[in-house]
Amino acid sequence: xxxxxxxxxxxxxxxxxxxxxxxxxxxxxxxxxxxxxxxxxxxxxxxxxxxxxxxxxxxxxxxxxxxxxxxxxxxxxxxxxxxxxxxxxxxxxxxxxxxxxxxxxxxxxxxxxxxxxxxxxxxxxxxxxxxxxxxxxxxxxxxxxxxxxxxxxxxxxxxxxxxxxxxxxxxxxxxxxxxxxxxxxxxxxxxxxxxxxxxxxxxxxxxxxxxxxxxxxxxxxxxxxxxxxxxxxxxxxxxxxxxxxxxxxxxxxxxxxxxxxxxxxxxxxxxxxxxxxxxxxxxxxxxxxxxxxxxxxxxxxxxxxxxxxxxxxxxxxxxxxxxxxxxxxxxxxxxxxxxxxxxxxxxxx
Length: 349
Fold this sequence. Notes:
- It is built from 10 helices and 10 strands.
- It has helices spanning 15-23, 63-82, 130-142, 166-172, 181-198, 249-258, 261-281, 283-294, 301-315, 326-338; strands at residues 42-47, 53-60, 92-100, 108-114, 120-127, 149-152, 155-159, 164-165, 208-214, 219-225.
- The longest helix has 21 residues, at 261-281.
- The radius of gyration is 21 Å and the shape is globular.
């Protein structure tokens, strides 16, 4: 079972990552900063449609500040969705600003509504933790998912990732007779593989969503990470394998019931092949990112030493022991995929 014992400390964005973000148009000037949103003067608990506390708070601002803040937030939405075309702001209004008081980065969630048809969307404003930014960029480059985010100094703006939260999926969808259990089990194996290869940790059911897309004969499932704070931080291998989180047991049990060990191996190989293909397609950009990642501290030394020992033992590959940073561990893990290196695990019995 995977358990994180201590709260992760944030890491500032250092110059190597800043240079990467500027070179790839991720660092841009924004009309508002995270600290500006801290000027609220009142808040109330946000209750969901079932009258349950969401553990978010809706915040309110002095009248003198509210118009400026709302206008700046609409500009940010235009930057995310329309490449800065401010004409899209005409029919938009800020319906709500929520604050997650229990999260590591205490993010603000902005609800934007189109007044013509009442359609709504969300985006997030957070403190820019370097671990999270590396995680977002690796997800964008190495997964089947595109990630839309921008940074300005110590402020991070993220697009909302659509999907059913994992814990809600377990509660309301897992026992649905229409669930294609084999397809879902296959996707969980592939998600497990993606996380492990690029060392994204803490993927329990609260930190990913399930996107269900109707296909011409059935439904396709895609599991998407939504929390990237634990990118290459923890010192234990199990933290990077979603299969070892107790909260994921209902999902893992489907795999144990529906998939044989040879089938699991097949799906692992398929996903590693896809990761290798993405790596080859963007190798120059990924190496720029890994160079920045390898030059800075992203975890305590004891975490680095522990993880490289476990990976060396897991893969039977002593080259992991030569890695002197978390970034180098990610690079060697990806190089193994690129060179067709085999893995040595399956779902727990």
